[in-house]
Amino acid sequence: PACTATAPGGQGLVSRSHREIVPRRLPPPSAGRTVVRVAPERLRILVADDSEAFRAGLAALLGSVDDVTLAGEATDGDEAVSRALDLHPDVVLMDLNMPGRNGIEATREIVIAAPHIAVLVLTMHEDDESVFAAVQAGARGYLVKGARQAELLRAVHAVAEGGAVFGPAVARRMVDFFNAAASATSAASFP
Q1: Interval 149-170 mean pLDDT
Q2: CA distance 106 to 119
Q3: Measuring CA to CA, which residue among 109, 127, 129, 128 is closest to residue 119?
Q4: Which of 140, 143, 156, 158 has the alpha carbon at shortest distance from 61?
Q5: What one-character-per-residue DSSP string does the chain give?
Q6: How far is it, in rounded angstroms, from Cα 147 to Cα 165?
């Protein structure tokens, strides 16, 4: 039998067989149809940062959100890889500068070994070299520490769903970079 569940945020009902949100104003189920209400699945997050205070702040933020849970913490790149491969979180929030293996190397190893795990870089560095290295390593997003809580939570959900997210300043610089590259290519191909 078809089953339905309450959609996250209570927008309506989700049909498990079709994975679509339908309006809440549905008629009562007909005879022989089973309706089951289930809690939405919570995203599991691994926080990889060498700052204990920053990890504690993220843990408090994640603990205050209904659809996200802290799966674990790591204090360096080696531990981030190990914990990610053991815990299989949905998202790893990855700092770049950590003792031992840095966040770029850890991201690359996690993505190669477990491509279903999304890595969202959360760092103080917004230089072009760091951004492009993170993206080349397989990061699905890049935010600078200090991003608003709502922005961070939107980014976590977006990368978990397969999207790519970049903070506003980083995104502008990426657009400028690609526009400059396109202009140079166009000018070079002009006779």
Answers
A1: 92
A2: 10
A3: 109
A4: 156
A5: ---EEEPGGGSEEEETTTTEEEES-PPPPPTT------PPPPEEEEEE-S-HHHHHHHHHHHHT-TTEEEEEEESSHHHHHHHHHHH--SEEEE-S--SSS-HHHHHHHHHHH-TTSEEEEEES---HHHHHHHHHHT-SEEEETT--HHHHHHHHHHHHTT--EE-HHHHHHHHHHHHHHHHHHHHHH--
A6: 12
Q: Model's pTM, two decimal places?
A: 0.74
25 pLDDT more than 50: no
The residue-averaged pLDDT of 146-151 equals 90
Partnered with residue 45 across adjacent β-strands are 70, 91
Instruction: State the pLDDT at residue 186.
Output: 61
